[in-house]
Amino acid sequence: MNKIVVLISGRGSNMENLVSSDIPGKFVLVASNNPHAGGLKRAKNMGIRTAIIDHKTYSNRQDFDLALAKKLEEYEPDLILLAGFMRVLSKQFLSRFENKVLNIHPSLLPAFPGQHSHKQAIKKGVRIHGCTVHFVTPSLDAGPIIVQSAIPVNPKDDEESLAKKVLEQEHQIYPIAVKWFLEKKLRIKDDKVFVDEDPKFSSLLLFRDT
Ligand code: GAR
Fold it and tell me: Which residues are part of the catalytic machinery?
């Protein structure tokens, strides 16, 4: 059985959605750098073990990443899912879990990496926005893209309405990417992801008119 660890920093809706999806794996740990993350309670309610590795108690990134890596290694994960995890992971951390770490980001990468992606989308007046699941590399929100979902931006949209619409799409695409990964359908070549044909989702770009 595939062992999956989820890293969160906040409310944990993606984590909860992943755990509730029919993913062929066992969620062995939900870990957070934020002791107050609402998702920790959600995980406990679903009977999943939790851990807190508070970055504020470490004097530098290296020490935090090492402590996090050691905690995760106790569980021998096949896959690590970042779900609203707001820390950049170092090369040293990622080299211990090579090509086993996925992230979801609330924009159509490479547009709007980093924080406040919905605010940035509104500011730039984009007509199409969305979310991306990608492999994690040491560069912020820049790893090979697995799947994206796009939504139209309406003139009346604000940050809040966009966040809500995009989150619905996040909950659709993250389980799809995780299943592809666990079914060994993903190959990375020249920093690009190729998906072995899937009868349900032949395209990497899903477009939902919401
Ligand atoms: C989600 O929108 C996720 O894409 C975003 O944080 C939110 C977490 O919500 N992640 C990032 O911005 C990472 N760069 P959740 O805790 O309810 O899943």
Answer: 105
